[in-house]
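Consider the tokenized backbone below.
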């Protein structure tokens, strides 16, 4: 009898479901979170008691990394954050056109009048003939000297009667137009304009109810004025990173402007690539207006070429992401950068803390008394170091010509039928 043939057992198929990587669509993959927390807005303290205040000429007190650390842990640091971020919060979802001139307080109207007078000083201080040079025009020093002669009546108009008080707060206003020695301008000078407004708040000349018009009317007027000054005197970018920076000159239009657009129904971060949007809404929204101005002064077209950081930021999904990033950048790239903050000025209204260095201890001149070249002495690795600020904020770079100057020179030459002379920085 033949042996029975057993049926072969089927091969066992291994279960690989838990051993193979799980496939996920790319658009569902979570974005890496930013390790830096979004800076919070501290509570704005009440103004000081003016009866016990003794005004003093503002001086530099951040002259070493230790001084910088003391500042970052001080009440003045929180005061500055509270003021700037308070201004930012005040313009959420607000276009410039939402503020009418009739609704302005007398103090805000007087501040606008002062900026008009500064523009008149520009008109009376023509630039020197420097050929086709694109570096800073020395006529800028004549403008600052004339403004220094006339500013006292401007502040008296605001109700500041004390000569010492005028000397203190006017220092911030005059420094907000640029550096007289280096003939440059950057985010540190822009910050001085905020400090001037902060002094007016500390003096109780302006109040929190003025915050929205301070951004939408006063700061926009200051921007217009600074663009005129930059075009007239070819101010060099202070500490510019070139195309790898956010902007050659300004920072706050992007912070305030992102807050304005926070919940806009149709303008998205990518909209900055649409010229029609920039032209139609540039006057109402600071972010769009600044991008439009940057486009107008660059000699190549396209943000990806002349402003790749702005181009990268435009890929953000919402204005909330952009605003959060701008808040982080204000702290990280302005307040926490020693090359910027070593020019920060402290007085009675914006006080330093005990233990910070003084200009006398370091033997350095005052900010407005620097010698030609603009070198300052800072502590680097325990040693005094002569630092040249016509650079990228590092030790130590080279002078950077103005992109605004390049655009102005191009207009002159095109009008005369000539081409623009190329230089190695183009």
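A designed sequence for it:
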């Amino acid at each position: 009898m033949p042996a029975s043939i057993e049926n072969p057992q089927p091969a066992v198929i291994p279960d690989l479901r838990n051993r193979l990587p799980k496939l996920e669509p790319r658009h569902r993959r979570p974005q890496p979170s930013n390790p830096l927390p979004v800076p919070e807005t501290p509570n704005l303290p009440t103004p000081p008691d003016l009866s016990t205040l003794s005004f003093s000429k503002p001086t530099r007190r951040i002259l070493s990394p230790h001084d910088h650390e003391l500042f970052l842990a001080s009440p003045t640091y929180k005061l500055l954050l509270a003021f700037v971020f308070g201004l930012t919060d005040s313009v959420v979802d607000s276009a410039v056109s939402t503020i009418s001139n009739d609704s302005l307080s007398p103090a805000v109207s007087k501040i606008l009048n002062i900026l008009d007078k500064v523009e008149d000083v520009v008109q009376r201080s023509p630039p020197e003939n420097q050929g086709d040079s694109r570096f800073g025009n020395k006529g800028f020093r004549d403008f600052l000297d004339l403004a220094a002669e006339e500013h006292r009546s401007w502040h008296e108009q605001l109700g500041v009667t004390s000569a010492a008080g005028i000397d203190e707060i006017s220092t911030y206003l005059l420094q907000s137009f640029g550096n007289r020695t280096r003939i440059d301008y950057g985010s540190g000078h822009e910050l001085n304009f905020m400090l001037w407004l902060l002094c007016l708040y500390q003096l109780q000349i302006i109040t929190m109810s003025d915050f929205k018009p301070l951004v939408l009317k006063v700061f926009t007027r200051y921007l217009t004025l600074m663009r005129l000054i930059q075009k007239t005197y070819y101010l060099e970018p202070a500490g510019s990173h070139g195309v790898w920076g956010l902007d050659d000159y300004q920072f706050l239009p992007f912070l305030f402007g992102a807050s304005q657009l926070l919940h806009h129904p149709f303008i998205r971060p990518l909209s900055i690539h649409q010229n029609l949007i920039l032209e139609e809404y540039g006057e109402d929204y600071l972010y769009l207006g600044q991008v439009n101005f940057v486009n107008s002064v660059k000699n190549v077209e396209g943000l990806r070429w002349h402003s790749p950081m702005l181009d990268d930021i435009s890929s953000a999904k919402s204005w909330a992401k952009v605003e959060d990033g701008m808040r982080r950048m204000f702290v990280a790239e302005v307040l926490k950068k020693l090359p910027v903050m070593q020019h920060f000025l402290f007085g009675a209204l914006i006080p330093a803390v005990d233990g910070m260095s003084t200009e006398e201890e370091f033997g350095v001149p005052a900010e407005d008394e620097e010698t030609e070249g603009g070198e300052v002495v800072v502590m680097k690795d325990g040693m005094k170091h002569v630092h040249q600020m016509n650079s990228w904020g590092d030790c130590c770079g080279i002078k950077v010509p103005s992109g605004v100057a390049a655009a102005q020179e191009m207009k002159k030459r095109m009008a005369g039928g000539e081409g623009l002379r190329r230089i190695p920085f183009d």
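Confidence is low (pLDDT under 50) at residues 388-398, 418-426.
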